[in-house]
């Protein structure tokens, strides 16, 4: 459970090879952004997000069907600004799973 003293929130990272030129890149999938995070998890979430500073590109996947999608985007923008990483290029992906 996340509330039991974890130092960071789990992430998954994979090495991806681009077939055409053989270049590799890391793709990291983090936990979805959580609004109103309990104070006990704020430090863990920030520690996870600080890894973003090493990124060349951020892919922000948004659930287009969520009624608060715009507020979620604004919340993520605020955190990225606080982490001083808002200058990293970002690809916004609107996702709808039916």
UniProtKB/TrEMBL annotation:
<dbReference type="InterPro" id="IPR030394">
    <property type="entry name" value="G_HFLX_dom"/>
</dbReference>
<dbReference type="InterPro" id="IPR006073">
    <property type="entry name" value="GTP-bd"/>
</dbReference>
<feature type="domain" description="Hflx-type G">
    <location>
        <begin position="1"/>
        <end position="98"/>
    </location>
</feature>
<dbReference type="InterPro" id="IPR027417">
    <property type="entry name" value="P-loop_NTPase"/>
</dbReference>
<dbReference type="Pfam" id="PF01926">
    <property type="entry name" value="MMR_HSR1"/>
</dbReference>
<dbReference type="GO" id="GO:0005525">
    <property type="term" value="F:GTP binding"/>
</dbReference>
<dbReference type="GO" id="GO:0043022">
    <property type="term" value="F:ribosome binding"/>
</dbReference>
<protein>
    <submittedName>
        <fullName>GTPase HflX-like</fullName>
    </submittedName>
</protein>
<dbReference type="InterPro" id="IPR016496">
    <property type="entry name" value="GTPase_HflX"/>
</dbReference>
<dbReference type="GO" id="GO:0005737">
    <property type="term" value="C:cytoplasm"/>
</dbReference>
